[in-house]
Specification:
Layout (H helix, E strand, L loop, with lengths): L17 E12 L2 E9 L10 E2 L2 E3 L7 H13 L7 E5 L3 E2 L4 E10 L11 E8 H4 L5 E9 L3 E10 L2 E3 L1 H14 L10 E4 L7
Parallel strand pairs: 1-7, 9-12
Antiparallel strand pairs: 1-2, 1-4, 2-3, 2-8, 5-7, 6-7, 9-10, 10-11
């Protein structure tokens, strides 16, 4: 996993939506790259039970969106800002909950991270080799969404978890920029906007 290409990415505007940021933590374990995800607590009002990167909305105390991402990672899993080397960022993305999210990528140590049960049900550290395995990936084109129109949804099924939605889009971009993996040119299927999700 080559993270050097992430440093040259130019900022974009987050105007018109509430600003948020996430941290995609890269962890070296047994010589291989892994990504740390959280499983959101079931009682949360937005995206309950979904896999995500640590993150959340920008607060007045946050000088920058990098500060937001690092603060949230500390609050959610106890990842201290001083132990993270932020190496770059991905494209800003919108969510159905009216956020504009700026994803940062950082290198973090391989240690135990303890979830804050008020927000996080589990911490999952998933190997990049498994995320790039074609057997663990599928996608679908959803047509007629009232907000997004026709759009592609990516699913990564690894270790009993499914990463999809906005986080799935971030993972696609991260993998395509740092590994030889590329999402297939065409989705596996085309479905309506309200079709059942394969999770």
């Amino acid at each position: 996993m080559d993270l050097s290409g992430l440093r040259r990415h130019a900022p974009q505007s987050l105007a018109g939506r509430r600003e948020a940021a996430v941290l995609a933590p890269v962890i070296a374990r047994d010589g291989d790259a892994h990504l740390l995800f959280t499983k959101r607590a079931a009682h949360l009002g937005e995206h309950p039970g979904q896999m995500s990167f640590p993150g959340g909305g920008r607060e007045p105390i946050d000088r920058t969106l990098t500060d937001t991402a690092l603060r949230e990672a500390d609050e959610e899993v106890g990842m201290r800002p001083t132990e993270v080397d932020v190496v770059g960022r991905l494209d800003d993305t919108r969510t159905s909950s009216k956020y504009a999210v700026r994803p940062f990528v950082g290198v973090a140590p391989d240690r135990e991270y303890v979830p804050d049960e008020s927000e996080v049900a589990e911490v999952a550290v998933l190997p990049v080799d498994a995320l790039t395995d074609p057997a663990n990936y599928e996608s679908e084109r959803r047509v007629g969404h009232p907000e997004y129109g026709d759009h592609r949804v990516h699913f990564f099924h690894v270790g009993g978890y499914t990463v999809w939605g906005v986080t799935g889009r971030m993972v696609v971009q991260l993998l395509e920029r740092t590994t030889d993996w590329r999402a297939p040119a065409e989705p596996d299927r085309v479905v309506g906007a309200d079709a059942e999700l394969p999770i």
